[in-house]
Specification:
This protein is of the alpha+beta class. It has 6 domains: 188 residues, Hypothetical protein af1432, CATH 1.10.3210.10; 147 residues, Beta Polymerase, domain 2; 116 residues, Ubiquitin-like (UB roll); 81 residues, no CATH class; 66 residues, no CATH class; 75 residues, Alpha-Beta Plaits (2-Layer Sandwich), CATH 3.30.70.260. The protein is built from 26 helices and 22 strands. A hairpin with a 2-residue loop joins strand 20 and strand 21. Helix 11 packs antiparallel against helix 12. The longest helix has 35 residues.
Length: 711
């Protein structure tokens, strides 16, 4: 374990700004606070913050960051307070430590919620000081290095999965390549041990066979560099197990079919030399089409710069070549840590306005979203997105993920502009809102206040901000529509019976029924959560009257009319059972009429409808659920798909959750099993969509469950 002097000497090896006494005090403070605490490996707990500090020194972080690394667990795992840290080490270090501190002391209803809250705090803290994220990644790296000492396999798999989905993408997003690759490989080894061992074994065999090949190719590339008087450093390596596994999955190919397992890095002195090396390589070897990327002229969001190309190189081997300067290489390896300016007290150098825009975007979305599970799912895509740069009419440069549309651009400017986007121009030419933006495009958006988001817009965007804003707007429009329907039903009833009801009476009815607002009451009437009968009863009690519903107010049998909105559940309309989908009360439903045999009830998004609109023998009509569907004791079958980790006891835990939510499993079968994961098909008896939603949400919150969907 490092001593205080080791840490002092380590920091002094790359910067002169070191306060020896402050470092010694921090070391002793953390040592005393952690005291006799022991890790699961049997080592003193204090060894962990020391190892984190060592990782931070490897990244050449400033003194305050290293000290914060030593102290990062004191507020969570000891009796240390933020006031103590401020008093002993200053406000800046205290702020960093507070930003890193986990929220494990908070009472959470599930591990999934705890993960969400931790991620939320991490992003909020990192947005104000990126060093919080650097320490957190260093902390996670050491925890992954010692993951094997955790006794519970399920806990190890949870940590590994979280690392792959959140922390490795974050490391990549801030350019810390070496940390990203180590996190990925350890997590991959834990989640898929057999696949990891197989790839590792094949790589070892390949290295034994191709070691001389790497030397030969390196020598030939050096000869090319010497021929144009360029001094450079060339290194060759085999790619990491996880990166190979990713390529196999994305391309759906076997290990034997991979052709670019070898990568060579050429480090030169200047940017012109980068392009000179690229030129001579392209002149001497066959270029693989579509594999050239110029990240020097257009850097990635994390400031990464390099030239990437793939060629059929020496010995007729397909190789990937990266060409960069020494400064670019430092940024590629250390990422944002390479921007530390030790002459200004370890602060991060000022950066261009768009450099951390992705982080601010995530924070903004996080603070305005209600669906945390969807956010966590989408955030990984946002963090890993490659970037295109486009220009506003005023000349402002904006960065968006590659594949983003004009509509994404509109929402990136402001959600109001996105919601009312009507006309778009790219490079002066009118285009549709779904047009994909290319590097260097000038984009102009015209708005129209009468324009509102449409459901099909969701398939035209790729950024989280656009998706979240569109869903929020659509939900708001749907809510407003239902409120109007509810108010219309309310007004129509009282006018029909010539009941003179004042605004004060309406407000009193709403409060008596315990609604916080009139709009909420009208919404409940619109979705039949309460009925006009309920409203009338309340009115009678308040006015001490005895008005009764007229006979015509009760639902009566209706004949099927394709131009009429049918109420599902009324008598004398035969319903034909279907097996393609299982609608439950509250689902958006559509009816299909084939001849005069009756009506089929389907959920609105049932795949059966593809192509039916053109069938003249089939009539498709809108349906809605009657009040009786919600009020009677009928049970409906809902089909649910679950992908979960395969461990003894997991099935009984799922069954217990369903039972606790008053559901009943009538069928369960395993359709597929792969490694440590299993796919389950459940048929569950429920009363309505509200109960089903609660059951699905409860199952999703279980740590061993990866995915829950209806089928």
């Amino acid at each position: 374990m490092l001593t205080p002097q080791d840490i002092i000497s380590g920091i002094k090896s790359y910067t002169e700004k070191v306060d020896d006494e402050l470092i010694r005090r921090a070391y002793i403070f953390a040592l005393e606070k952690h005291g006799t605490q022991v890790r699961e490996s049997g080592e003193p707990f204090f060894s962990h913050p020391v190892e984190v500090a060592e990782i931070l020194m490897f990244l050449k972080m400033d003194q305050n960051t290293v000290i914060a690394g030593l102290l990062h667990d004191t507020m969570e795992d000891t009796d240390a307070t933020i006031e103590e840290i401020v008093e002993n080490f200053g406000q800046q270090i205290a702020n960093i430590v507070d930003g890193v501190t986990k929220l494990s002391k908070f009472e959470m209803s599930s591990i999934a919620e705890k993960q969400t809250e931790n991620f939320k705090k991490l992003l909020l803290s990192a947005a104000s000081d990126i060093r919080v994220l650097i320490i957190k990644l260093s902390d996670r790296l050491h925890n992954m290095r010692t993951l094997k000492f955790k006794k519970k396999k399920l806990r190890r798999m949870y940590i590994a999965k979280e690392t792959l989905e959140i922390y490795a993408p974050l490391a990549e997003r801030i350019g810390m390549t070496s940390i990203k690759e180590e996190l990925q490989d350890i997590a991959f080894m834990e989640l898929y041990p057999d696949i990891y061992k197989s790839i590792k074994s094949r790589l070892k065999h390949l290295y034994d066979v191709s070691e001389q090949i790497v030397v030969t190719i390196t020598t030939e590339l050096e000869t090319l560099a010497n021929s144009i008087d360029i001094s450079c450093t060339i290194s060759g390596r085999l790619k990491s197990p996880y990166s190979i596994w990713e390529k196999m999955n994305v391309r759906n190919i076997s290990f034997e079919q991979l052709s670019d397992i070898m990568a060579f890095r050429i480090i030169v002195d200047t940017i012109p030399q980068c392009y000179q090396m690229l030129g001579i390589i392209h002149r001497n070897y066959l270029v693989v089409p579509g594999r050239f990327r110029d990240y020097i002229s257009t850097p990635k969001n994390n400031s990464y710069q390099s030239l990437h190309t793939s060629v059929i190189g020496p010995l007729n081997k397909r190789i990937e070549v990266q060409i960069r300067t020494k400064e670019m290489h430092i940024v590629a390896e250390y990422g944002v840590a390479a921007h530390c300016d030790y002459k200004t007290n370890g602060s991060i150098k000022s950066k261009k306005s768009y450099d951390y825009q992705w982080l601010r975007n995530l924070v903004n979305i996080l603070e305005n979203t209600s669906n945390m599970e969807e956010f966590l799912s989408n955030s990984r895509t946002e963090m890993l997105s490659d970037t295109v740069f486009c220009i506003t009419p005023k000349g402002t440069i904006m960065s968006l993920p590659r594949g983003a549309s004009v509509l994404d651009f509109a929402y990136a400017i402001h959600s109001d502009i996105g919601n009312h986007a009507a006309v778009a121009k790219v490079n002066g030419k009118p285009v549709s809102l779904k047009t994909v933006i290319e590097n260097g495009d000038q984009v102009e958006i015209s708005v129209n206040q009468t324009q509102f988001p449409k459901p099909e817009w969701e398939s035209c965007v790729s950024t989280i901000k656009a998706k979240t804003s569109i869903k929020k707007a659509l939900n708001s429009l749907e809510k407003e529509r239902i409120e109007i329907i509810g108010k219309s039903n309310f007004d129509e009833f009282f006018q029909k019976h010539e009941i003179n009801i004042s605004d004060q009476d309406i407000d009193l009815i709403s409060k008596t029924l315990k609604f916080e607002s009139l709009s909420r009451m009208f919404y409940s009437i619109g979705v039949t959560q309460i009925t006009i009968h309920d409203v009338l009863q309340t009115y009678n009690k308040l006015k001490n009257s005895n008005i009764e519903l007229a006979n015509e107010d009760f639902e009566k049998p209706k004949t099927v009319n394709t131009n009429e909105r049918i109420i599902f559940g009324i008598p004398n309309i035969p319903v034909i059972p279907v097996s393609c989908c299982t609608p439950v009360p509250g689902d958006k439903i559509i009816g299909v009429i084939r001849g005069n045999n009756g009506i089929e009830i389907h959920v609105e998004k049932c795949p059966l409808f593809k192509g039916l609109e053109k069938d003249q023998d089939v009539k498709i009509i809108d349906l809605s659920w009657s009040r009786n569907a919600f009020e009677n004791e009928t049970k409906y079958i809902a089909k649910v798909n679950i992908v979960a980790e395969y461990e003894p006891g997991n099935l009984s835990k799922i069954a217990e959750v369903v039972e606790n939510r008053c559901g009943n499993i009538v069928s369960l079968r395993i359709s597929e099993k792969f490694e440590n994961f299993v796919q389950l098909h459940l048929e569950i008896e429920v009363s309505d969509i509200a109960q089903l939603t609660m059951i699905i949400a409860s199952i999703r919150s279980m740590v061993f469950v990866n995915e829950v969907t209806r089928w």
